[in-house]
Amino acid sequence: MSKKIMIIDDDIDLVEAMRITLESAGFDVIDAQDGSRGLTILKTEQPDLLILDVMMDSQDEGFQLAYQLRASENTRDIPILMVTAVGAQTGFSFDSSKDESFLPVDEFIEKPVNPQALIDAVKRNLPIV
């Protein structure tokens, strides 16, 4: 059985590019265009890993969703990868290894997303079965 990856991102083109990349690597992919829809889907789907955008309906929606997911007993253990263009736009870089209470994600991936870097990050962060 293949691992299920959920992408929550409002950029439909990026979602499709990541879907193609991940499906070609053997993963099942589901998606939502915003945090609210993502939470609804999470009630019925059980993804093995989440990929979140930082900025969707608000500039920090991805962070708010990550905090919410980490606070819930049902979703706290799902690995979270966050895709962001913040570093490219501002020069600011995130290091998720510093303080998970401040940045509650497992790894950051810079946009534009390199397909091999995406697959490598997913494999690094998937729970071992």
What is the mean pLDDT? 86
Gross morphology: globular
Distance between the termini: 11 Å
Roughly how many Å is the radius of gyration? 13 Å
Taking the sheet with the most strands, its summary is: 5 strands, parallel
**Beta-strand content:** 15-25%
Task: State the domain count.
Answer: 1
Structural class: alpha/beta
Number of helices: 5
- Name given to the CATH homologous superfamily: Response regulator
Instruction: Give the strand order, joined by hyphens, for the main sheet.
Output: 2-1-3-4-5
CATH class designation? Alpha Beta
Summarize the helix and strand pattern as letters: EHEHEHEHEH
Looking at the overall shape, the CATH architecture is: 3-Layer(aba) Sandwich
Q: Summarize the amount of helix as a percent range.
A: 25-40%
Looking at the structure, the CATH topology is Rossmann fold
Unreliable stretches covering 5 or more consecutive residues: 87-94
Please tally the β strands and state the result: 5
